[in-house]
Amino acid sequence: PDSLPLDISPEVSNNGTLSFDRRANATFVILARNSDVEGTVRSVREIEDRFNRYYRYPYVLLNDKEWEPSVVEDVRWRDAGSLSFVFGVVPSSDWVQPDWIDEDKAKESRDKMVEENVIYGGSVSYRNMCRFNSGFFFRHPLLLPYRWYWRIEPDVHFHCDLTFDPFVWMEDHEKAYAFTITMYEFERTIPTLWETTKGFWKSVWKSFGGKGGDFMKQHPEYIAEDNSMGYLSDNGGDTYNLCHFWSNFEIADMNFWRSKPYMDYFEYLDSKGGFYYERWGDAPVHSLAASLFLPKSKIQFFDEIGYEHNPYTHCPQKEETWRKGRCTCDRGRSFDYDGYSCMSKWDRIQ
Length: 350
Ligand code: GDP
Ligand code: MN
Prior knowledge:
With 350 residues, the protein is of the alpha/beta class. The protein has one domain (10-349): Spore Coat Polysaccharide Biosynthesis Protein SpsA, Chain A (Alpha-Beta Complex), CATH 3.90.550.10. The protein has helices spanning 10-14, 37-50, 69-78, 103-115, 124-135, 166-172, 193-207, 215-218, 229-232, 254-258, 260-271, 274-277, 282-293, 319-324, 343-349, and strands spanning 26-31, 59-63, 85-89, 148-152, 157-158, 177-179, 182-184, 243-245, 250-253, 299-301, 307-309, 312-314. Helix 2 packs parallel to helix 3. Bound molecules: guanosine-5'-diphosphate and manganese (II) ion (MN). The site of manganese (II) ion has 3 residues, from loops.
């Protein structure tokens, strides 16, 4: 992206005299537990130092349990109370395993995954979290006023100064979804997700009275003509190659998740129970939707954003970008062209 000159000193920003032509209707969103307080504070400090002290976007922190007052105090105090932090609780109906899920069947599947050493294979709370991030966070009352969000997790790192506003940039360039890292999913966690996604197209097709022919052209909101199928599949959609955007980092337009096509898709997936009978992640769910429902021009890879979530780092590949951002990451060790990265699949459809 073109950048705004960021030769503004922090003193100027602290005087409250900082002004930009435009701000986006945007917020950070952090889902965390009370026990994540230290990691949350560290992530917030880094994004403040590298970006947000010049931009002043607010934070919404969500938790499935009541926030402990000491945690609220701790987060607010570390940032001198000058920022806008709002602490919210997720309604349990948006979080817990629905009672129409067959718990015997779900348990059997979890036990098997534990035997097979699948990461988080035995965890119900991890599944709740994935389902919440797939279908609920953007409907939380505290997020409803906003269009754009930047998802942040405890204990992540931002390695470069960000010298432009990615929300405004995305709005101006008509983007809907942005990522920094893409990789393969563990097949064991989503054995039927691709077939279920195909089942969704069929059900939509039928509900529109389609018999064949031109569904894509008639309903581009359900499957974009210029989609990113070539990134998701190496055989024109027959099978899924497991590539997805790593969703612990996301900057995106919530109007996309709130749209009828995405909500229909989520409801369909949810009705099949795969968040609990398997271990569907929000990353592949978001990625399949963004890649198929959006034209590929609406998905942005931000090379400029140096980002680390253990164990992987994206470091800007362009030397000029890396210098300008005063990055603290090693360009040679960026995940982009690691054997486990899907960046080359993304590049090939560009
Ligand atoms: P990973 O990145 O896939 O290894 O999963 P994480 O453990 O980092 O969880 C993803 C995000 O969800 C992080 O922001 C966590 O703080 C949050 N999270 C995970 N499980 C829970 C939970 O049970 N309750 C709450 N409130 N947050 C959770
Ligand atoms: Mn994480």
